[in-house]
Design goal:
Length: 259
């Protein structure tokens, strides 16, 4: 093959790649939604006294199209996402746990968890450092089991007496909440005991979820979007997604955390 022929083939391959990748949607690097569907710029973030670390399962990070953990992270200024399954060797978490400024705890239900809806925390002047597990219930149990670094931490929970607003997700129970709803309920409790002084700032969390749900419903009703067109046969990934819907998110029914 002479040089001229090689350069022609190279140019043809380059053009084909540009045409192929040019068809893909540009994504927002914050929420991983398409730039057209992204509404990050309209969100008003707020600062909390508590520090949050969202421990996100890799499946949630890579596969979940309407996950709420990322949106919660955008709204919370004192928050960061850490991805993984076993966090025992995480240098970042180890460093946080050694920081005397914080009182660490994990948002997770259980018989011995501290119900913030019923009584305040006894942490003095320390800042709450709250780890929030973000994933399906099955994934959350695996993450807790594997992450021994979380085993000795106090657990915090709340009374779940409201219905989930996550209308585009099928929950195991109507009172099961998404990650962003769980954080909102937790902040409600912290606010009521004056561990926080938020007023109504944290209400941006359920409002953000409402916006996400409205956008998803609009997409489903848009006939120009083939994936949502009524009557179209579902591919294997969509079917798998439906089967996994009944495992969604953290929730606080006793039957779900008893081993």
């Amino acid at each position: 093959m002479n040089l001229e022929k090689y350069l022609q083939l190279k140019a043809a391959r380059q053009k084909a790649l540009e045409e192929e990748f040019g068809t893909y949607r540009k994504l927002c690097l914050k929420c991983l939604r398409s730039e057209k569907a992204c509404f990050c710029e309209s969100l008003n973030s707020f600062e909390t006294w508590a520090e949050f670390r969202i421990l996100m399962h890799p499946k949630e990070a890579k596969s979940e199209k309407v996950g709420t953990g990322r949106l919660a992270n955008i709204c919370l200024e004192n928050c960061k996402i850490i991805m993984g399954i076993d966090f025992s060797k995480s240098m970042e978490i180890q460093s946080l746990l050694k920081n005397p400024e914080y009182s660490p705890m994990v948002l997770y239900p259980g018989e011995n968890s501290h119900n913030i809806s019923e009584r305040p925390l006894k942490i003095g002047n320390k800042r709450p450092l709250i780890f929030v597990i973000d994933g399906t219930w099955a994934c959350a149990k695996t993450m807790m089991r594997e992450s021994r670094v979380l085993h000795h931490l106090p657990r915090i929970s709340f009374n779940s007496d409201t219905l989930s607003r996550f209308a585009v997700k099928l929950q195991p129970d109507s009172r099961c909440l998404s990650t962003i709803e769980s954080i909102h309920k937790l902040l409600d409790g912290l606010n009521s005991w004056e561990h926080e002084n938020l007023g109504e700032k944290h209400d941006i969390l359920p409002q953000t979820l409402d916006r996400l749900v409205q956008d998803q419903i609009a997409c489903m009703n848009d006939p120009s979007r083939k994936i949502y067109r009524p009557g179209n046969p579902m591919d294997k990934k969509e079917i798998k997604g439906l089967r996994e819907w009944d495992k969604r998110k953290l929730f606080f029914e006793e039957k779900n955390y008893r081993s």
